[in-house]
Design a protein that fits this description.
CATH class of the largest domain: Alpha Beta
Strand content: 5-15%
CATH topology of the largest domain: Leucine-rich repeat, LRR (right-handed beta-alpha superhelix)
Structural class: alpha/beta
Number of helices: 16
Radius of gyration: 29 Å
Distance between the termini: 68 Å
Largest sheet: 8 strands, parallel
Protein name: F-box domain-containing protein
InterPro entries: LRR_dom_sf (IPR032675)
Number of strands: 15
């Protein structure tokens, strides 16, 4: 076989299915190894390093080490599952200290310079991550641009990831640990490329001071708790690149003080910030969704938020569980020339004339949801067809009608077809 040219050998070797068998052949000589390197370079799955997955392919430690060191300069992502970061690092320390049967000196590790993404997919145990683990992680993968960590940490050494653009520190479990303010400040002094930041606290009241964040001029997406956002909402909204804010409500409830769970008022009454955003940023808002079951707003909703001043930009509107008259929302719709999606789910007082007005005014409308709105009736379908005919509309409109007053008429028409 050594007399065959590389293209012939490549065609032969690619039919060897098992990675273990490929490695056995690759170790035969340098020529075969080079051909297998070409073969492995074309496979994207070998660009993502999942320690446990690779170990399942190569149970023999020497095979795993051999293959890892061949591919390490091409690995661009690390995904960590079924282990904590500390457990993962212990395995990586052993793997990275050995290179071609040569052991590096103490505390010296090969780094994975090509790795850009580190994702922790393990369910958090709520145990505080050691600063030393983050320090070691920086040493191993210094050039990452995206870091997902599901274990609570102090924030120390995060700033040593100099190229970091996306930082996800949301811990989806009950833990009171939160990044320390002094480290939070250092992060924004040093990470000038940061575009996406997720610092939500799942359990408890967030005490973060967001002032350092105001210097992050490249920030596009921010996920944060309401409590720290309140103090800087005006300044945050002025960040030049900001396109999205995802706000989590702080959980600051004494469970023991709740006498009867069934009688506990779970509604959200902190609406000042909500109104402020709608009033000050109306020209930038393209989508708005409100569930009035959880966020009870006044019947004079339109006069409160003054959304129609910038409603011409709105493309998506969902207002659900409405128990006051839709007449108060007519002013909304008159300016919404670009509206494409409208959801009026579970509107107690929604009638045909309201829906018809929305359809007439919103000529770009493509999706209309009137599910669970019982006071409309089958005549609405034919009235909408009349509007389409009069306005010479060519694009269809999709109507979602589950458990609404349209359901009987729709079923009658469908049954007539079949």
């Amino acid at each position: 076989m050594e007399n065959l040219n590389e293209d012939c050998l490549f065609s032969i070797f690619r039919h060897i299915a098992e990675l273990q068998d490929q490695i056995q052949v690759a170790r035969t000589c340098k020529k075969f190894e080079m051909i297998f390197k070409r073969l492995w370079a074309n496979q994207k799955r070998y660009q993502v390093f999942n320690y446990l997955e690779w170990q399942s392919w190569l149970p023999q430690e020497n095979d795993l080490s051999y293959f890892f060191h061949i591919r390490r300069d091409a690995v661009t992502s690390i995904i960590m599952v079924h282990q904590t970061i500390n457990e993962f690092l212990k395995k990586m320390q052993k793997l990275l200290k050995t290179n071609n049967n040569k052991t590096l000196s103490k505390n010296k590790y090969l780094c994975l310079e090509a790795v850009k993404h580190f994702v922790d997919e393990e369910k958090s145990l709520g145990i505080l991550l050691k600063d030393s683990d983050i320090k070691l992680l920086v040493q191993i993968i210094p050039n990452i641009v995206s870091l997902h960590v599901k274990e609570p940490l102090s924030g120390k050494y995060i700033w040593d990831f100099h190229k970091l653009e996306e930082l996800y520190l949301y811990v989806p479990s009950q833990t009171s640990f939160e990044i320390e303010n002094v480290h939070f400040e250092n992060i924004f002094q040093r990470l000038t490329y940061l575009r996406i930041l997720d610092i939500r606290l799942y359990d408890g009241m967030s005490r973060l001071d967001l002032k350092p964040l105001l210097n992050c001029r490249n920030l596009c997406i921010l996920k944060v708790n309401l409590n720290p956002l309140k103090n800087y909402i005006c300044e945050v909204l002025l960040l030049p690149e900001l396109a999205c804010i995802n706000v989590m409500l702080d959980w600051d409830i004494d469970i023991q003080s709740i006498g009867n769970v069934d009688l506990y008022d779970f509604k959200i009454y902190q609406t000042n910030e909500f109104y402020h955003i709608l009033k000050s940023q109306s020209e930038r808002i393209i989508g708005l969704a409100i569930d009035l079951l959880f966020l009870p707003l006044q019947a004079n909703l339109s006069s409160e938020i003054l959304l129609w001043q910038g409603g011409s930009m709105l493309k998506k509107l969902a207002i659900c569980n409405c128990n006051f008259s839709p007449d108060t929302l007519i002013d909304f719709v008159n300016e919404m020339k670009r509206l494409q999606i409208l959801s009026c789910r579970c509107w107690e007082n929604l009638r045909n004339e309201h829906v018809l007005h929305f359809v007439k005014q919103c000529k770009e409308l493509e999706h209309l949801d009137v599910s669970f709105s019982s006071n409309i009736n089958g005549k609405l379908l034919y009235e909408i067809l009349g509007v389409f005919k009069n306005q010479n509309r060519e694009h269809p409109i999709r109507i979602y009608y589950q458990n609404s007053g349209l359901e009987v008429e729709v079923e009658k028409v469908v049954n007539a077809w079949y």
